[in-house]
Each structure stands twice: as structure tokens, then as C-alpha cells.
Amino acid sequence: IACVLSGLPESIIAAACARSGQSVLHVDSRNYYGGNWASFSFSGLLSWIKENQQKTDIDDEHEDWRKLILENEEVISLSKKDKTIQNVEVFCFGDQDSAEDVEEAGALPKLPVLGDLGAEGVAQESEEECPPMQSALPEVESQEPEKATGTEPAGAMEGNGTEITSQNASSPSTALGESALELGKNEAAPSETSAQEQKKITYSQIVREGRRFNIDLVSKLLYSRGLLIDLLIKSNVSRYAEFKNATRILAFREGRVEQVPCSRADVFNSKQLTMVEKRMLMKFLTFCLDYEQHPDEYQDYENNTFAQFLRTRKLTPSLQHFILHSIAMVSETDCSTPEGLQATKKFLQCLGRYGNTPFLFPLYGQGEIPQCFCRMCAVFGGIYCLRHSVQCLVVDKGSGRCKAVVDHFGQRISANYFIVEDSYLSEAVCTNVCYRQISRAVLITDQSVLNTDSEQQVSIMTVPPVDPGKPAVCVIELCSSTMTCMKDTYLVHFTCPSTKTAREDLEPVVQKLFNLNTEKEAENEELEKPRVLWAVYFNMRDSSGIDKNSYDHLPSNVYVCSGPDAALGNDCAVKQAETIFQEMFPTEEFCPPPPNPEDIIYDEDEIATEESGFSNSPETKPESSTEESSSGGSTAAKKEENEE
């Protein structure tokens, strides 16, 4: 299997293939993992911005690779320019001059990194070099994760979180037999400073503390019963990451930010709702949980919008707003009644599994998730090469199948299947493809949009359309305990489907929530809103939902993965990865859990073979080969014992 680019779908496919015993080569022309799913430190993001503002075509200086193409073969050239990011605009509301001579704080203690090259230029990974995160029990502070530095996407310093793990066989089972969630000490301490004495953050401080930032290119959350969480638990990849609960759901209504009650306890403790409204809300939410059993209550409105259906349920305007924008999180004009009811049901089903909201956020950012699957692939023998671009696909004229790729060194690499991210395809292949766009903004602010006793809040809010015809905007606010920003700052992500440039789509919403005055202007007035310290806007291509037949002259054994979509969750990427894997290997299980040491049975011949440094067992071969490359040939059995 040859994978080009290391985005989330490609990384999941690579991990699944390696786990099933396939040989995997995973290359990426970038010097970091994740593609448009990556996370960056502040300085890394500035470099990424510069690259996307100064895009130039890469000319071939050497045409020697064309000699590798035989007479009965043709080539499909791949794109040499990333066109997925456009309209990048950066704004600094602090004093940039004061930060000219400021350097980013020193590197963290470094662990071996997935992507560090060995003697033969191959990424080497083992459990011994990078042990998985320790479980975080409620009474014990979780182990402090260390992040690598250098060209990797992000750096971080400290933090505790939540680790999702599949239930141990010896552990008592839950009532529903669900996977266990181990909670770390992720509750924040009370604010140490009063509002009057709030610490002033300057741009030079942001630059100096740049490694404390982990800024996602794509902003998403994980539904607690979503496909990605289920896959992380099933494959045991969850041990490579830690997670934090989203702590509150917010709503923007009549110019104010309010907290939305969504669980039963929240509803009855809410001071925003009257007793009558509480009963009305609980009655409607109870109906949504099993709405399929009562088709007579909604089938007359199947062709109506969900907003129109809510008006028939005798709900007050405030309840309609909460349900539409903060629970179902759907469009007021485009969402049908069945779609709205299904979205509400999904929200309610995810409540209570890991916390009072349906969502989890990975510590250090969304960019950790592709790297977790890359690590699993490497543990089972996958080979990784960053900064390694591919020139073209080599296609056999007779069979029409792709036989090989040619890299930028002029090397011909043969494989049976090829996974390519959409951005690598040239315009000649994508002539009939119509792309959508996503508008994105990332802000660094000095306060939360809704201050409470606790500063450490992870919030999600949907802002209704500012003008008719405009989309609703999803806002995710992250605090420093998520390991995505420095202390006393917040990282705020804005996302919506594009109608114009990202700044034109999102700045009106930013202005409603934040103060955009510069540092000097802010000194002369009292601010009621949080102040923006730094902001970036950009448009990102949304290539999800495109049928493979839309691409011209693409061989049957070349599979195209899309980039990030505009949805809040990650279901699209997981579904795409599983579909492609099943097309390639219909009889194989998708991402099965690694074998337990007690379950591995060796006969005398296998033991003798392994002791001599070779193994033919599909269950142990990937682990053994990886371990040998880093620890001198220890057996797979020892490897599994150490891991346990």
C-alpha cells in the first residue's frame, strides 16, 4: 500500500492496512504530519501562513525520472502546488515592533518522534521509545505528556486530561457494557486574579510562549458516541492520546452569550428558564430520544424545515433557539424535520457518557489524532517519510491499473494499492470536480466570551446567521488546560461554509463577540467584550462528498481521500477510511484491536524462527520488525510483555 499525505482518512487507512499485515509506505511532501488536519505551535503557524501567502510552483530541474517509464505505460502527473488554502489574512492587535527581537522559549525535552529518520532514511517507531500515555485515575494526577519539538506540528508544556480506554476484562462492567473513561484531574482551579487585576498579555509574550500553543487548522470535537471514539477504543489507539470534556454549550441570543442547559440536571438547575419552560423542554427532548416510535407526531412535517416544526410544538422562542442552534446545531433554513430530530437524538444519546456535554477534545489539538493512527501503523511495520514528494502515478496502458509511483528522487516505488489525498491531484484529473469551501478564523483572546468562576472552560457555541442567506457560525473556545494556548489566553476557532472570503464571512460575528481595538486604543477605554490579541482568517477547500467517478482517468486501484469537511464531528473521515479499506480488503476486519500477550499461541517452530530474528506470523510480524529496528531484535513475545 502506498499512501500519499498523512491526513486523518489516510492515516486511519494506513493503520488498518498495517494492522491486517499489509506492507505500508506513507509519504508526505510536507515536513509535518496531518496535512490540513495538523496542529501548529505559534511560530509553526506563522511559517505555515508565510508558505501559503507566497505559493510558487515547483519546477522539475531533473527529468531523469521519465526514463523509468516503459513504452506500455503512461503517467498521471500529481500537483506540485497546494491550492487548498486561500485568502489568508493575518491581524495583530498588539505591538509587533516590541516582538522583533523576541525568540520562542527553548525546546522541551525531546522524545523520539514519528518521522525522525533512521540510518536508512526510514521513520522508526517502537513502544519502548515512545511509551503510551499512562491511565489517569480519578484520585491520581495523570502523567505529564511530553511533546516533541523541531519541525513537528506543535509543542506543549503541561496538563492533565481524560484518557479513553476499552474496558479491561478484569474490570467490573458498566450497565451498558460501554468502554470506560478514566478522568484525570482536569478541573481547573479558581481564578487567581480578580477581573480588575487581570494580567495584560502582549504580542511579545505570545511569541515567547509560542510552544504552548497548539493551533488546529481544522476545528472539530469528538462526539462521545461518534464513529471516531468507537474506532479509537476498538483499535486501542486511544492509549496514544488524552482528552478533555467540553464543559459547556453556549448560545448567542439578543446580543448576549448564555449557557444552555442540556442535561436533565442542567435543565432543572437553570435560572434562565421558567418552571413551565423546563417541563416543555424535557417533554420535547424525551420525545426526540424515541421519535421514530411516534411517526404520527412529525410525519406531516417531513417536508418542512426543523425550525417550522419547532413552532408547532408550543415551545417558547428561547426554547426554539436553544434546540435549533445549541442542541441540534442545524441550519434554520436548510434542515428538514427528520434531519433535525436525528441531530437532536444524536446529541442526547452522547450526553452523560463522559460528562455533562456530548463532546470530547483531544489534548494538544485535533492534529494529535492523525499522528496517533500514524503511530499505530508504524508500530505494525509501516514506513514513514516526510519531506518526500511524489512526481506521478505510473499506469499500465493495457490493464489501466496503477503500477507504481515515482518520487522526487527519481525512484520508482511499486505497490498494489495507492491512497492519494485530493489536493495532490492535478487540474487535468479534476476538471469535472466542483469544490466547496470552508471559512476559518483562529483568534487568540485575553478573556472568555462568558466569564465564570472557573477560567478553564471548553465551550462550543453556534451563532445564528447575521444576515439572510449567510450560514450559521460554529465557535469553539479552548482554555489553557487543553494544552492549546498559554496561560491567561483563550484560543477561539470560527468555522462556517463559505459564501465569500473567510474574513467577509466571519468578521461580522467576531465583532459581535470581541473587541478588535489595538492595544493602544484599548488602554483608553473600558472594554465590555474580550479583546482579540491576534487573528488569522483563511479559506480551506472542502472536498468531502465527491464521487470517485468525478475524477477523470483515475485507475481503479487508486483511491482518493478528501480533506476536512465543515461538520463538527469526524464521522465523514472515518466512514471514508472504512469504505476504502473494505473495497481493498473485503474479507479483513477494519482496525481490530492488537492481540493480548496471553492470546498469542506459539508452536516450537515459530519460537525457534522468532529467536533467530524472523517471523511469519501475521499477528506478530509487524510488531517484531518494528521492535528490531529500534532495540536490536527482541522478540514479539517480549515486546508484548513489555507493552502489557
From TrEMBL:
Domain RAE1/2: 438-566
GO CC terms: cytosol; nucleus; Rab-protein geranylgeranyltransferase complex
GO MF entries: GDP-dissociation inhibitor activity; GTPase activator activity; transferase activity
Cytoplasm is among the record's keywords: yes
Bias kind Polar residues: ranges: 162-176
Annotated keywords: Cytoplasm, GTPase activation, Transferase
Bias kind Low complexity: ranges: 627-636
Disordered as annotated region, ranges: 122-176, 589-644
Presence of keyword Transferase: yes
Principal subcellular localization: cytoplasm
InterPro entries: FAD/NAD-bd_sf, GDP_dissociation_inhibitor, Rab_escort, RAE1_2_domI_C
Compartment annotation: Cytoplasm, Cytosol
GO biological process: intracellular protein transport; small GTPase-mediated signal transduction; vesicle-mediated transport
Top-level taxon of the source organism: Eukaryota
Biased composition (Acidic residues): 600-609
Family listed: Belongs to the Rab GDI family.
Name of the protein described by the UniProt record: Rab proteins geranylgeranyltransferase component A 1
Organism: Eurypyga helias (Sunbittern)
